[in-house]
Amino acid sequence: MLVVCCPDCGAPVELREGTRSGDLVECPNCAGEALRVRENGGQWSATLAHRVSCPACDEVITLPEDVKPGDTVRCCGQTYRLTFEYGTFAAEET
Question: I need a labelling partner for 79 at 20 to 30 A (CA). Which of 3, 33, 53, 64 fits?
């Protein structure tokens, strides 16, 4: 079984059979943390996949890898601007 280390807590995270590069997996120790796994030359690694909660309905939105503060996301028919403080993103009404 393939294993990657969580970049946040360092715990080993087993990858299920059929996992593909770019897939999201959950860290069993970090509540709500998603990890984006990548395979490069036979080596697997994981990075944190940033998430935000919709201010209107609390749906969790996984953000793309290239996200940056000031980008927007849509949920509930509304557009929200992303801010980044204290190491995490938040969605705010525009």
Answer: 33
